[in-house]
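DM between two lab members

TW: hey, do you still have the Ribosome hibernation promoting factor entry open?
JB: yeah, one sec
JB: this one, 190 aa:
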Amino acid sequence: MRYQISGKQIDIGEALQTHVQSGLGAVVDKYAQRPTDANVIFSKSAHEYVCESTIHLSTGLTASAKAHAAEIYSAFELCCDKMEKQLRRYKRRLKDHHKERTQPVEFIGASSYILAASEDTEAEEPDSLQPMIIAEMEARVPALSVGEAVMQMELQGAPVLVFRNEGHNGVNVVYRREDGNIGWIDTKQQ
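TW: and the structure you got?
JB:
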């Protein structure tokens, strides 16, 4: 497994890098099959250290965790605990479904835009109905089953996931509802 350990405006020493590789390696070896790479970023937010880790699995799924603590090693330990919990759930779900994905997840390209929020909410009528685009990025839309999409959304800690349904190739959305349940929007053609 490849490790990329870095710090945002802080120096990361050899001791911390070794600690991260051994700690994260033990967790990944225990719960995940064939991880490809891990990305760990340390940063400082006010008086706390922040540790963000992302692990890419060979199946195409991605697990990510983030933690804050007063000390940098404590931040990593908390982040590692969250990652372990996510990978344990992922492995349990794979066992529950009694099937393993034989092919890697297929991705298609999509455009992702960030639109500017309207500054004046009291304006009577806008000059144009066209929103102002302030950022344009490439996004990857995976081809998954609904169960895998829910698992991927939870592994990423994301509130919503857009995916292509393997059953009928339609674009679907899963999202976390305010009541804690998962919502699913299916756009299959009738």
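TW: got it. Residues 2-97 form a domain with the Double Stranded RNA Binding Domain fold (CATH 3.30.160.100). Residues 72-97 form the longest helix (26 residues).
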